[in-house]
Amino acid sequence: MRKLVLWAAIVVLGTAAAVSAQDIASFEKRMTLKTLANGLTVLVYERPEAPTFSFFTHVDVGSDREAPGITGLAHMFEHMAFKGTDKIGTKDYAAEKVALEKVEKAYLAYDAERRRSGGSDAKKVAELEKAWKDAMADADQHVVTNAFGEMVEREGGVGLNAYTSKDETMYLYSMPSNRLEHWAYLESERFLNPVMREFYKERDVVLEERRKSYESDPIGRLLEQLVCAAFTAHPYGQPNIGWPSDLRSFSATDALEFYRRYYVPANMVIALVGDVKAAEAMPLVEAYFGRLPARPRPEPLRTLEPPQRVERTVVMRDAAQPYYMEGYHRPSWDDPSDAVYDVIGDLLSKGRTSRLYRALVRDKKIAAGASGQNGFPGAKYPHLFLFQAVSTPGHTPEELRDAIHAELERLKNEDVPEEELKAVKTRARADLMRQLGSNSGLAEQFGYAQARFGDWRELFRMVERMQKVTAADVRKIAQQTFVSENRTAAILQSTRMAGAAAGGR
């Protein structure tokens, strides 16, 4: 859960600087924040422990901004951001540009015919498909494969990565401090002049990712169905990776339109952490990232998920281990109750001392694993508090369900003992402190906090709010949230168990 990772950042920072979590002024001395003329927000945190720096680029768009027909496009563009630019990844861009235009023209003709209303002409579809693939083969002659990644690695870059969620897209890696300008050039260039080279090959890669994560994974399929049932209006109900038909249909033109609409400087935050001086870094950032053209920030999402008034249940039968999931709608991250949900999450599912583990795994031995997840499948908008458990041999999803409900009823009807509440808060900080201590981790948390809350100082304030949560707060929120009409459940019934039972009779 991202907010818990943020708590870890606070503890690590507080330890390193030998100040209390409330001493924001100590961090302000090392932090420089600036909004460029084009709207881009930049943070530089000076941490000269080693001659390296890490960055984190946050783009405030994920699959939340996708509509039917282009689901999966945010993730797809993330892939394309590694394909290079008009200067990186090409042998002759002038020739490649012409070739790519031919690819797109051929693809759009093929796609229009194969999806033609009233039925397509199979012979014509085959001819158009061949023309499209021939155009791709011609364009491939101009490509220098993996040029962007190799340039990063050649200059000492490590940890080159990116990821797309329901709410945002993030890019990150680390480099030696004396390669700061090289980083500024590379990172700004790929958002200034992206090229949709090898787009349709990469689309096939993403389609294969989907097959492995969903079609070939019973738990993935079950989770996808739960989310679809829980969100009937909001884009959270769409798979982050996209629907198969969209992954076979959207175009490079669609991707460029998505980029132009959402990859605007005012919708982006960059955080730099490490052996860099703001007085030197900011001019470089302005020189390179200032080239990104200013465009209006996208309008907020209009669609909200209406309140759930009836319990929903999804049942899937598969030759797999029985599994149970259920999700309860809860408010977004900016709701005053957010810290209470974080405490509930730790109380129920953090480690072997958590209530779900003790009840389902240790004591009743009906589950091989049981957990709760706050902030699912995203956190920017109202979302779900998710519970899930996998059974041990001979036990059913219904047993898992009843055991989870027993723990929720206990939470609703009994105050959490003060010592247990205190232990949850202490454990969350101590456990997560060990998970985060690098420049890259700090850059991510600063960048995320600035992007989501509009102020990196919220890292501290979140911890303060969590420490103020009381047993009465926990009981009140549990009573409001964990009710049947607010629940969506997903059950995986094992056909292997059913077959074994029938054979036994």
What's the short story on this structure?
The chain is of the alpha+beta class and 505 residues long.
Features:
505 residues; alpha+beta; Cytochrome Bc1 Complex, Chain A, domain 1; 6-stranded mixed β-sheet; 5-stranded mixed β-sheet; 20 helices; 11 strands; disordered N terminus; disordered C terminus
Q: How is this structure best described in words?
A:
The chain has 505 residues and is α+β, with helices and mostly antiparallel strands. The chain has a domain at 312-438 and 454-504: Metalloenzyme, LuxS/M16 peptidase-like (Cytochrome Bc1 Complex, Chain A, domain 1, 2-Layer Sandwich), CATH 3.30.830. The chain is built from 20 helices and eleven strands. It has a six-stranded mixed β-sheet with strand order 1-2-6-3-5-4, sandwiched between helices. It has a five-stranded mixed β-sheet with strand order 7-11-8-10-9, with helices on both faces. Strand 4 and strand 5 form a beta hairpin. The longest helix is centred in the first third of the chain and has 22 residues, at 93-114. The protein is globular, with a radius of gyration of 25 Å. The two termini are 46 Å apart. Residues 1-22 and 501-505 have low confidence and may be disordered.
